[in-house]
Amino acid sequence: MTLRTLDTLGSLAGRRVVVRCDLNVPLKDGTITDDGRIRASLPTLNRLLDAGATVTVVSHLGRPDGAPDERYSLRPVAARLGELLGREVGFGPEAAGDVVVRENLRFDPRETSKDAGERRAYAEEIAAGADAFVSDGFGVVHRKQASVYELAQVLPSAAGLLIAGELGVLERLTRDPAKPYTVVLGGSKVSDKLGVIDHLLPRVDSLLIGGGMLFTFLAAAGHPVGKSLLEADQIPVVRDYLTRAEQLGVRIVVPTDVVVAAAFAADADHETVAADAIESTRFGADAIGLDIGPDTAESFARAITGSRTVFWNGPMGVFEFPVFAAGTKRVAEALTEVDGLSVVGGGDSAAAVRTLGFGEDRFGHISTGGGASLEFLEGKRLPGLEVLGWEAES
Question: Which of 48, 168, 324, 393 could hold 291 in an S-S bridge, CB 3.0 to 4.6 Å?
């Protein structure tokens, strides 16, 4: 079976369509700080509206623990969606119009219940009065939740443009990718990326390691890391990956220099030092690594721009602090120069490119998937895709 797309639903004129988006945007004091996921939902919503459908949008936001909580209301999201669509958007259970946004799905505990019967009952309530369902929140397809899985069984269902696009890109990363193929991994923990490393290691040419996870790799090589983030229990696993990579002919590139500081703070005293000499700085054993160094950033950039396929997931340092954002910025710049497919793997990486002022159109693809994208790249089954007819690679 293949993924059911919008075309499989036939004519949508006059039909009432429920669309599951991923509008889980960051909020600060009720204000949206990054509307990237709302923007990502627009192509599918416009396609449905232009076809004459009436659209009800459903989504979650945050983790309200199965009860109404004004901090997680989708009201500001509905308002921003209306601005972006250039249409009036109704909000709440009594709203009517061409586009309506319902309140946060997770205000009802049945959305995430482990009981399939409870989820089914909730899905039937969501589906009441609707003619079709379009699943378009890639960030939740790894979850068996009422609005992701059971709703696709209750109504005639198909994937929206966002999901179809995400899937197409991710399949290019795992099925016969153009070579050379480089994967850049950052973020805080090695343990978060083990599945990705394991599944992609036989497929890639180079694996570049940055972010907090680099210190576990340095420790695995016998280097002291001061008070830098370290998962000591993962050192044997990392050593095993280094051995496997050598056997497969894959380059695992660990930083040769890092930026260390006296404290985890935006204004902390800091200096650049060789990666194998972190504790030789004036900070001694209290040194904290907060970014890759400039030499490493340039070597990473050369590896990236010399590749035909690049997947990047996880910042190279604490990019939220401008003084420790240089490594992440250089990696992002390099991705914009790739002659081939460049993919920014969602989550913190997507936030970083926006924070650092890069236009989204400068990259081949910016994923909205987050954990779902990583699970895809780990080779895991994704129930929210399987219910739409997709079959994982065997």
Answer: 324
340 is a catalytic site residue: no
**Residue 167: strand, helix, or coil:** helix
Q: Is 87 a catalytic residue?
A: no
Give me 59's structure tokens: 């989504």
- 3-state SS string over 37-81? HHHHHHHHHHHHHHCCCEEEEECCCCCCCCCCCHHHCCHHHHHHH
- 189 belongs to the catalytic site: yes
Q: Whole-model pTM?
A: 0.88
Distance CA 47, CA 12 (A): 10
**Alpha helices in 175-265, H assignment, sequence order:** 194-200, 214-220, 235-248
Distance between CA atoms of residues 387 and 3, nearest Å: 9
In sequence order, which residues have a C-beta less than 8 Å from that of residue 332 and are 6 or more positions away? Answer: 312, 344, 352, 353, 356, 358
Are the C-beta atoms of residues 126 and 153 closer than 8 Å to each other? no
Catalytic residue among 4, 15, 20, 37: 37
Q: Is 371 a catalytic residue?
A: yes
Which residue out of 165, 186, 314, 347 is catalytically annotated?
347
Tokens 């240089």 -> residue:
326
Alpha-carbon distance values, 99 to 88, 96, 159, 312 (Å): 7, 8, 19, 35
Tokens coding 114? 């482990």
